[in-house]
Write a structure and sequence with these properties.
Protein name (chains A, B, C, D): Amino acid lyase
Family (chains A, B, C, D): Belongs to the threonine aldolase family.
Helix content of chain A: 40-55%
Cofactor (chains A, B, C, D): pyridoxal 5'-phosphate
Subunit structure (chains A, B, C, D): Homotetramer.
Distance between the termini of chain A: 38 Å
CATH class of the largest domain in chain A: Alpha Beta
Radius of gyration of chain A: 20 Å
Pfam families (chains A, B, C, D): Beta_elim_lyase
Oligomer: homotetramer
Number of strands of chain A: 10
Largest sheet of chain A: 7 strands, mixed
CATH architecture of the largest domain in chain A: 3-Layer(aba) Sandwich
Structural class of chain A: alpha/beta
Chain lengths: 321, 321, 321, 321
């Protein structure tokens, strides 16, 4: 909020302002390598623009069958890529494995009748709150490189993943073969705006193309400084990591009480908890909000603003069940 | 060939010629209902244009996971529909079942985040040579109607299906709820050109739109009479059924010899046969051509020009194995 | 800013919040008719989504050759409509005339080879700061209705147009045949977010489709309440008109001094002024910012925050030239 | 016809047959340079696929405002390029001039708000039957190269142009900077099928991409040998030039009689002739067919099958007017 208020004065329009101009440097410092960084209003747009830069319309994107880009973006990747094909794969905890990817690639005949895979997209932390380690990402990065595929990471919860890993952001991205990263901000306390980052030798060309897509899709806002200011406020003094650490810590407190109700290990800020309909109703009656997750389960998400005190009531309620 | 030669004289261009003008009436007679009929050069284009008329870009098309539109058209449906989502389902013999479709529909949340299904596409005969009966199609037609979905039939081997069923073409199409049919011609002896047919009260509007897509995709040939003439020659004296009957009969002869090597019942003109690599090599050494079908299997296709005499050598070779 | 700060508390995500829920009613009251209203982050996106709802991919959109959608949106309408054709027309002051539109329509053959016009898009106030009167819009609305075309108004400066006209917003929109309006907010003091409004019997269907496009293009932000709150703050106590009146009044003060340097009458908040390179340099040396407009001219834009005092220095500088 | 009949026997499907395999070599010989050649069913598709290989969706294609791709293809280039922008220019006889192209390029700001030109498309012979000389093409080729644009030639009447020029096909194409050529066959006596040719160092990559588009747009026919056989029959013994010479000669005979009714010089096989409504009716009453060309004019097209004897009646009728 303070950052936004500070940006509330005239400057050059679109991304010609002082805040936007600092993004490349700020993210390059954070990632210890030259980075091309664009603010983009939503994760859906950032993911889709990344894929449009990595995959032609006649190509395919390998992703987990429960990935956000597959399930919850109303086909946005198909819109931005002009009809590229999502190639969903199963996998425990919404993680892709190198073997599954290799098998999928092997099944594609190299003729013009079949869609060739051109990119892999993974989500870190995953849709089930699991975190890919640098080693796991690197294993997928090797497959990608061996087959000439681009590697995209949907980092809507990237901060939570890095907070969990305790590694350098570089370790789990470009050092592990990631070409493009959606660096989440909104789920981590931001108002509007994520960052789309490109790494490596093709970063400049891809970012130039991404700027075209950003404009062409109506995402180049005339007062982009408000978005850039948020991103800078997040990363320039490690606010993004502090927020994520807080959310992760809150999740751990709840996880302890949830015990063997947990359907997945808790590594980031999401808990998937077995709850009967009655139990869910009991919790809701006490004022707790969460999403049902199919039958007999619920998804609990903690956030940056929570600490031991604020989650204590829910922890107690879980314990009482 | 004779039909093409007969069409080899000047007439109005595109679809303004005398042959094209007769298509609606000829197909209406064959299907016992007013039909809108367009010649379209390839099955890929006919299928994709049909889907573009049934499904918006933000919609989804339910199809079998081994359907030609899913596997072998390089994403053509995504191109013509501007990025609609294929929703592949498993099913024995490449057939969709009403239950599988209903389950898939139930899993889609009715919000803007998820792609809404808008059409179902089935292949008759299927990619494994099985034939949907009128009752089976009608059961899917009921699901489609109940959920406001369009129903498309890829009839690349429609003639073989009807020859097997011995029913009226109407019984397995519009009477069973089919809105659009790709009426195959090339696999049944034609040179270039299939027919795209629309049935029912929206036929006229959809055909008008299909004519736009045909032009816009470069499929409105200036000498379309050559395509129309082939289609008329096929249907005006039941050549299409005679050809299909011949191909089916030839397949039955082979099926008898293939015995329990068969992986699927033989209903149309395709046989999927278990063959070791040595057996396949043996057959090929004798001059027989066929596709490998993964490991340890082969796909044999008979055609309209074959009869007992011409398939006898292969039948004998199969018996010898 | 206050509105945004007020929205800075948790609520349902996307457009499920209390602010978004009030948009339809608030705009319906302002326009004296049932209105479907969506917040959309940028004018480019709002214009393009409007056109995607009015024009199929194989259709055309008649617009002025200097319209923003033609010149300055990197082909965004082509992206959202999947390749619809812009049909640019000349016209004094960036205004379309009914005669020019009729002539263009007459030149289109009604066959599948030519792109059929399906929509008209006008900008009010125009790119040269001129204002279409209700009568002028109605004349275009009549042409649109007679030919079955949708009518879209790009109202990036709609507030300035209404402030100039002194009419009801309804008079210059739906009463004059407008089907969809981009209601500008950012150029009138907002931070991020315009409104896309649909009028008339098809409003509900078009808005439903627009919601799909908004999601699919990555414009359905998870914290949409910040946009909705801005729009409500603008219209619920006539702030939008007060801002526009201020900007228009400031422009009039400058217009008086610009005298016969003016290239167009000043009706809204833009002045197009003949300036030699030396004169432009002189003004810039005094700290005034503006866009060059080709050779020997400049574009000056006043805004909501200006009054007699704040523009006095520039007025004086113009007088001194 | 003979070529088609000769192709009427089984071979590998799609473009795996013996005829298709010879295309590259045959066209390479004709053009005295390594050429990548694809058969494509229609000129609309060949033009559009060429442009899709030369221009990204966010780019623009400079073309004459009366070019076939602008006027008569129902927006097909927009479909295949996913919404690239056609940039129409005026020009005498439907010819582009280097100056006009340079002026257009100069008017484009190099920012993301404006669509960058990425290709030039010219038609030879033009829509008014005029022929670009090698020098004229080379002048445009120089502009293209200087600005990093691809150069496409729509050669629906390429044979007529070359017949008129008497030059090597190479002189007016790749030696003059042309990257992609639609080599017309149908207007020159073929049944279905044109050739799309790529020249130069990027030919291989562009052709690979074009093969994807051909499949994805439903233009990879399963019996492609019929198209390849026609193309080979056309070029392997100079039939294409003999046909074009015949058509051009017939046009000259008519041109002599048309005298100062001619609106454009007659260089290929089209005549644009001033005719009153009565004169047109008189000719039609005598059995002659032609297109009206706006008010008071007609377009006469001669073809490969005509000679002095067959055009004599029309020549006489023109003389009598």
């Amino acid at each position: 909020m303070a950052a936004i208020a500070a940006a509330d004065r005239a400057d050059h329009g679109y991304d010609g302002d002082a805040w936007s101009a600092r993004l490349d440097d700020a993210f390059s410092a954070l990632f210890e390598t030259p980075v091309q960084a664009l603010w983009i209003a939503s994760g859906t747009a950032a993911n889709s623009i990344a894929l449009a830069c990595l995959c032609p319309a006649y190509g395919g994107v390998i992703a987990h069958e429960e990935a956000h880009i597959v399930v919850d973006e109303c086909g946005a990747p198909g819109f931005f890529t002009h009809g590229a094909t999502l190639m969903p794969l199963p996998g425990v905890g919404a993680k892709l494995t190198p073997d599954a990817v290799r098998d999928r690639l092997k099944a594609i005949r190299p003729d013009v009748h079949q869609v060739p895979a051109r990119a892999i997209s993974i989500t870190n932390a995953t849709e089930y709150g699991l975190v890919y380690t640098p080693q796991e990402v690197a294993a997928l990065g090797d497959v990608a490189k061996a087959h000439g595929l681009g590697l995209h990471m949907d980092g809507a919860r990237f901060a939570n993943a890095v907070a969990h890993l305790g590694c350098a952001p570089a370790d789990v991205t470009w050092r592990a073969g990631v070409d493009a990263l959606t660096f989440g901000c909104v789920k981590n306390g931001g108002m509007i705006g994520e960052a789309l980052l490109f790494f490596g030798p093709q970063a400049r060309d891809r970012a130039a193309e991404a700027r075209r897509w950003r404009k062409r899709s109506g995402h180049l806002f005339s007062k982009g400084r408000y978005l850039a200011a948020q991103l800078l406020a997040m990363i320039e003094d490690d606010l993004w990591l502090r927020n994520a650490n807080a959310a992760n810590a809150a999740a751990q407190i709840l996880a302890k009480e949830a015990g063997n109700r947990l359907m997945h290990p808790v590594e980031a800020n999401e808990l998937f908890v077995r709850l009967t309909a009655e139990e869910a109703a009991t919790l809701r009656a006490q004022g707790f909000g969460f999403h049902d997750w199919g039958h007999g389960a619920a998804r609990l998400v903690t956030n940056w603003s929570q600490d031991e005190a604020t989650v204590a009531p829910l922890a107690a309620a879980l314990a009482r069940l």
